[in-house]
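Recall that a protein's primary structure is simply its ordered list of amino acids. Everything else, from secondary elements to tertiary packing, is in principle encoded there. The following example makes that idea concrete.
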Amino acid sequence: MWPAAALVAVAAYVAMCLGAHAIARERFAAALPPVEIQRVAALPVPGGGPLRWRGIAETPTGYVVGDVRLLSSTRTPPRFIAKGLDHHLVSRLNEYRLVRVFLDFARFPVVEWQSQGTRQVVRYYDLRFVVPGRQRSWFDLEVHLDGHGQVQAIAFLRRVFRPGHPDF
């Protein structure tokens, strides 16, 4: 008796999640600004169960990101996050094996760069793994360059790779 009831409960929960996903994706798509959209996704928010989702819409130059709450009519305005993939520095870094591995896996890649004194840090991240209010995720990739633009290290998956490493 219990195994059958548990199976029915799990099947009902999966069906509810699939339905909630479709509704969240549709609500987010309907609320998008009039821009060229290439694809739309709805991702569950950790701890939000099937009722809280993060919508991501890809445009040619970036992503429109917003929250979707199925039991609330209040909406926060979506924000735009630039991809940053078309910078000359980024195109040069795409030749590195670890960067290519990251870009092959990432569904919503974003690149940011900043100067730290004479050095530069180029950070790659995937919007799927970014938790609002947190600066880094376990899946970020950082390329550290010296003042002459030479790559000194690549930090990825909690490891630091230096020139000469076979995976570099």
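Helices lie at 2-30, 88-93, 97-105. Strands lie at 39-44, 52-58, 62-69, 79-82, 109-116, 119-126, 141-145, 151-156, 159-161.
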